[in-house]
Amino acid sequence: MKLHSYKCLNCGLHFQDEAINAPDCPECRSDKTGMDCNIVIHGNYKHPIHSDSLAIHPSQRAEHEQLFPNIRIDKQNRPVFDNFVDHRNYLEKCNLVKHRQKIKGIKTQ
Asked: Which is it for strands 14-17 and 33-36: parallel, antiparallel or unpaired?
């Protein structure tokens, strides 16, 4: 069975579980957990951002339109974000944790 990575938003614990829906934290028992995935968004919202990493299955389109009426879906079933606030709210409502992008080429001594 596939393991999914999660992060507790309460204590910061990173853990894995077989559950598809975010389980309670095994450390502090908090229900404030989210999928711990590396979502990288390229862009600056001057142009709409089409998120490949958040693409949905076509069968989920109706549910998406009901839950997120202000977030449109493109032909490839990717959510399209016009501003940072909508993007952040979308991630929070889906219990997803966005990691800061690592910048290559910077070395510390």
From this structure: unpaired
Q: What are phi and psi of 86, to 5 degrees?
A: -60, -40
pTM for the whole thing? 0.52
Reading the block at residue 2, the tokens are 């596939």
User: Beta partners for 79?
Assistant: 73
Contacts of 105 (CB under 8 A, 6+ apart): none
Q: What digits encode the pLDDT tens for the residues 1-59?
A: 567 778 888 898 888 887 777 788 999 998 888 776 655 555 566 778 888 889 999 99
Quote the Cα angle for 29-6-61, to 5°: 115
Residue 79 above 90 pLDDT?
yes
Place of tokens 């938003």: 9
Q: By CB neighbour count within 10 A (0-12 exposed, 13-18 middle, 19+ buried), where does 7 fall?
A: buried
Q: Name the β-bridge partners of 4.
A: 17
